[in-house]
Amino acid sequence: MRTEELVDLLSTGVHSVPPHAAHRRFATSIALGTSGSLLLMYLVFRPRPDLAIAVLTALFWMKLAFPLSIASGAMLTVNRLSRPGAKSNFSTIRILVGGPVLLVWLWGISVVAIAEPQDRSDLIYGASWRSCPLNILLLSLPTFIAVFLAVRSLAPTRLRVAGAFSGLLATSLATVVYCLHCPEMSPAFWSMWYVLGMALGAVVGALVGPTLLRW
Prior knowledge:
Layout (H helix, E strand, L loop, with lengths): L2 H8 L10 H24 L6 H4 L3 H24 L8 H25 L5 H6 L6 H8 L1 H13 L5 H20 L8 H26 L3
Helix pairs in contact: 2-8, 2-9, 4-5, 4-9, 5-10, 7-9, 7-10, 8-9, 9-10
């Protein structure tokens, strides 16, 4: 078989990929996964009773912005890792993902430092520190499935790293949803237990990435 005939044979039935197909796939997976997490939160935990009042406070939106900013950084990273040959700028990743964590840590430390000694424990542990990280993991199940399916379909090559950031994306989106239920309003609480919940998702993603993202 001549080279020209082989090329013609391999190119038979090949169709061009629509522009921005990867972005649309991610947008669809995030929308479906987040909707599933919202439904799960409503069925299992219910929204906090004072949500209508909480949304009128700046502190609530700062609380919501924390996991949302991490989700944005994780989304950018997962999008790059899902495409073979695309370079990941880890300096930018450290700023987008590590920056919000560092800011909330500093904020939490300052809140605890100026509080009365008898109030510090409540600021850090709140009333739900034991269940918070596990609740975030539970709510991340729909987003975890949706994100991993989208990433796998785009043929990633660095499976463990892609799995870690896919897990982080799933749990950070789940944390945004969890904020609608969680009554804790202390930055010291978020800096410990929200971060732990999101980190657990990244660890799980790194462990299962080589298996679930293999193509």
